[in-house]
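Lab channel / #folding
Pinned by the channel admin:
"Please post every new chain as: sequence first, then the structure tokens as a reply. Keep commentary short and put observations after the output so the thread stays searchable."

First post following the new format, from NK:
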Amino acid sequence: MERARRVLARLHLDDVPEGTLRRVPHPPWDLTVARIGGEFYAIEDACPHSGQSLARGHIVGTQVICPAHDWHVCLRTGRVLTPAGCGANAAYEVAVEDDALLVLAPP
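Reply from TO:
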């Protein structure tokens, strides 16, 4: 029997319109949730370089560009793509349940 995963955040699907980023408070860290091409993504919000909120950045493909210094972070994996090799943010699995988006804790 599969154990239920803890839900880190629950949002209404309409709270994350297509092509947008949304900052979701979750102490002790916040999350950035994105909706791109009908898919949802969730990563740790703080840029690993400057600590800036990635939710204040902009989307290019499936990357978020940090508003402070233009670091590119992959929304699928949390990995910093530019500059290469500069770390990663935690990436979280998401699930859609009825009209809710759930951000799930790691197993």
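NK: The longest strand covers residues 7-12.
TO: also worth noting, The CA atoms of residues 50 and 69 lie 8 Å apart.
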